[in-house]
Design goal:
This protein has 6 helices and 8 strands; from the N terminus they run E-E-E-E-E-E-H-H-E-H-E-H-H-H. The chain is α+β, with helices and mostly antiparallel strands.
Amino acid sequence: MASVDEDECIILSSNDKAEDLLDYFVFLVKHSEDLPLEEGTVEVVDEDVMVTFCKKPKLMAHARHDCTSNFFERAECETSRPLGRNAETCDECYCYICNKQATECKYWVTPSQCHCNAHNKSAYWKRQWNVALTGGLGGFNLNPSKIDADVQRAGALLQEFNREVSVKYGKYLAGEIISLNCSHCSCQQNLDPGLCYTCDCLQQPITYRYSPVSDLVAHFLDQAEQEKPKVEVVMLLGAAKEILYQESPALHSQIVDVSAIFINSVTNLMKR
């Protein structure tokens, strides 16, 4: 057996009373420059084991709430502002919701979002994590194991579509006020134009135009036709579900074109 410098090896003996100790020795050789010794780190664990050096472990990627370098303050649902030092991160912290490095999260300290406060012990943040994972697939009740790359893409496109269509649909529900020019007040108050609430209500009817919503849906359906079959099917089902839950607020309104009529637009979209 080759000779080994006692300062550069660890000797483990299974029987220190044996006649020939070399038969029981295991030599683990490591150059000292690879294992830097630190003064004052000798620690006696018990009478048979002594720690003579320690080495800092490699820091792995982790969610912000698991960071050991920065204290994390937990709350069930706090989205208005970062709690305590939650906005502070180390180089390996990632966003629990976005599943990306914290420095790349667009909503890390954004009011009403504040992903820096997210953690896996909160029911609210778990729901947000699930929404981020499935995108617009939440209503499909899919098993996470069945969500492949194609389904994830469809979910991401659906999520963006749902955000855009909700804005258009909200404006549709609010309606558009059509201002009619009038030279004088038609009620007994005889006020100047624009100053009489009663006349304004009569002279400014509300018109509901569904065409901005239908145009957006039609564009989304055209986009779906350019995708892979699996992506297309999920996108079509998601769009159908979205428009089926929409309602028309207008019983009497002025209609400019046929595409602005809610029932006609929905019928034409569903035929696709």
